Amino acid sequence: MTTRRHVLALLVSTPFAAACTPSGLPDPVSAWRAPGAGETDARRFCLAHAILAPNPHNRQPWLIDLVGDDELVFRADLERLLPATDPLNRQIVLGCGAFLEVFNLAARSLGRRAEITLWPEGEPDARLDDRPVAHIKLIGEEVEADPLFEHITRRRTNRDPYEARAVDGAMLTEVGEAALRPNPANTLAVYSVQGDTLRDDLRRLAWDAFEAEIKTPAAYQESVDLMRIGARQIAEHRDGLVMDGPMIEFAHAVGLLNHSVLADIEHPLVKQGYEAFRPLALEAPAFMWINSTNNSRTTQVEAGRAYARLNLAATRAGLAMHPWSQALQEYPEMAAMHARAEELMSAPSEARVQMFVRVGYGPQIGPAPRRGLSDHIRT
Ligand SMILES: Cc1cc2nc3c(=O)[nH]c(=O)nc-3n(C[C@H](O)[C@H](O)[C@H](O)COP(=O)(O)O)c2cc1C
Fold first, then answer.
1. Taking the complete model, does pTM exceed 0.85, yes or no?
2. Least packed by Cβ within 10 Å: which of 30, 288, 359, 360?
3. Atom of ligand 1 nearest to the CA of 98
4. 369 in any annotated domain
């Protein structure tokens, strides 16, 4: 449960490095360097940015069919869902929304409008199916660039400890306002807290739900299966949850750390790994959350778009951000925590808390891997 850093930080600090690592495997972070550079097809430029969107467990579940000269069909990759922790595919849909918003920002940077038609063959119900999430057409009309575009390659999910420094409430309000698009669907609202008893309650909830998830075998195993241990596995998969750095490489090389060890929550190394998250929750300087008035698939997409903007606006403000989604997850073992989350964050009846994140001042970190554009484009 330790997280990324040294190896990726080194790779990303060498912007002109070849797209392969010395081992001959693809460079896991090359997608972050000058995305879309040299692309003559505007759709590919936009897609090269869209694949940098935040998404649950870094599954990157995005499939594209290019159609004609200026259209594309966007589907969720049903092979890349998270059935244990995200049984209703709500978070996967949020990740699709984040993808669409980053696509939209890239289109606007070119002075093009992305005309996005959601669920052109109908909304899925309980589970995602093969029907498209969106049909997109690039329209050549004059639109202004959105300043959030500039922050796409600097945006991170930052799981490091944050400084004890307080975060200014007015700054959080500004970040929250930037999350809602100029023509916001009225279904969404963004909230923040940086003090008082509500923050204490949310700190406790974040930790309790994190621990509850570790103690739920199917949910925990889903994360274990997606952990990439060391530079080789990271470069092989270029997705999932990254564990890197000299200690990880060493422990892996001498057989102290592997997927069977990670699966044993009583193992001292594993305990140490997940206990490192306790102070991150219990000392969180601030939290933000996105609520919606309903939980339709369209609203989930909108919430994902808002989350991408929230993360980018935080980046612009110099703030680090880290989702703690466990308490929002819809599997039975989490039901009590989920109810508590909705109560604390005021989302009664049909309303939902769609994203819940820790916010503060964190260290600079390197980017998470990406599989690269060619892995997403089918035709
Ligand atoms: C809907 C959603 C839920 C997420 N939940 C969590 C979470 O509970 N814990 C966490 O550490 N990251 C969470 N993330 C962040 C992703 O893990 C992260 O975006 C992904 O690993 C890629 O890393 P990047 O954001 O740095 O590019 C979530 C992201 C999304 C969009």
1. yes
2. 30
3. 31
4. no
